[in-house]
Amino acid sequence: MRASILFSFILLLTFSFQSCNNNGKKAGDTSGFETDEKFQKEFQEKLILVEDGGTVEFPAGKFLFKKALSIEGKKNVTIKGAGADKTILSFLGQTEGAEGILVTNCQNINIEGFTIQDAKGDNLKLKGCDGVHIHHMNSTWTTGADTSNGNYGYYPVECKNVVMEYCEVSYCADAGVYIGQSTNVTIHHCYAHHNVAGIEIENCINSDIYKNKAENNAGGILVFDLPKLFQANGRNAKVWDNDCINNNFGNFGKPGSIVASIPPGSGMIIMATDSVDVFNNRIINSKTIGIACVSYIITGKKVNDTTYGPYCNTITIHDNKFDRSGLSLTEKVPDLSTDLGKLLTATYKGALDIFVDGSADPKLRDKNGQLPEGKKICIRNNGNVKFGNLNMWKVSGEKDIMNYKDEDITKFDCAYTGINGNGLNPANVK
User: Fold this and answer.
1) Mean of the pLDDT values across residues 137-152?
2) I want to staple 100 with a disulfide (CB 3.0 to 4.6 A). Which of 1, 20, 119, 319 is the partner?
3) Domain of 101, in residue numbers
């Protein structure tokens, strides 16, 4: 009901803007790449035959692969190149398989030191692995921002004990770094740029995201929980000391996807998840939203999952720095290419540093819409911020959007401890 009201209101807005469209796909460049199919076959054989505890090494050079590479069921194996700038694997024009490299059901897999680019689907996907270390890698699409690009640069899913560090990723049609439905996750010192979403964890349990740089994406860092997935009830994440800078890039996500609804100009978005601590981040030059904490309801999509909780509970947003002084007057215009961007602009007449949709679980909230202690959204010590709350729990008709929205941040003045993420102490990490 609330979702239909929200989007009925959007339809009443007088704005008439179109999303950015791609005018033809840029051709990728494979000049100077080795195309010897014998080499391709030999390398796949090495991945099949490598013994537990062994290493498969790519030499320096530029290599074009027509088929996906895969490795399955190995233990304590390293896959490495001569360096991300020295070993480049291209899958441009791929004819077999969806991923560039697919890793399944492995234990303690180490991947380092090369670039993967232009796979038909995801550049690097890992599924069902326990012990994943991905570092000093680059993942990109040389065709630039295009809806037909692969969704993810790095895609560990249904994994345990995942560490990603010192990686770069760009031009993904969904999320650059995407870790989904996984447990015990650490992402640090990664650089995500020119993606729809820079870094995203989804339905993950116990996560630390710190000292990353998300720059020139549509949305910088996302912590989501979505329905009808293998692992439900994502929770317990710490997000700290990240730089989210100029995340105003046009949204080129695939129509109908969740990320296609992200308003360009979004620093961080927390959606429908529990126990998330967001602190000491720098949110710079976000033209629409600095940090948003919203329910799944705001997407307007139906929930056909009785086990799914579409609300945020136990969220802390504190000690973050917001600054959009680097934007010109024309650049400060909030996003008008997405429904949410239009809604925020119409409601608040400008960008917001912190935004909540004000939805609260009816099973938990009191008659005043307040959540019990231990379940609240707490916002404190973020400086002089512009704040907006739609109070969606009150809304029963289109007119109520304007009647109930407010800018009173004092209602959220509280604090929690005990959100431990993956167990790291921020004071002890570099």
Assistant:
1) 96
2) 119
3) 2-13+46-428
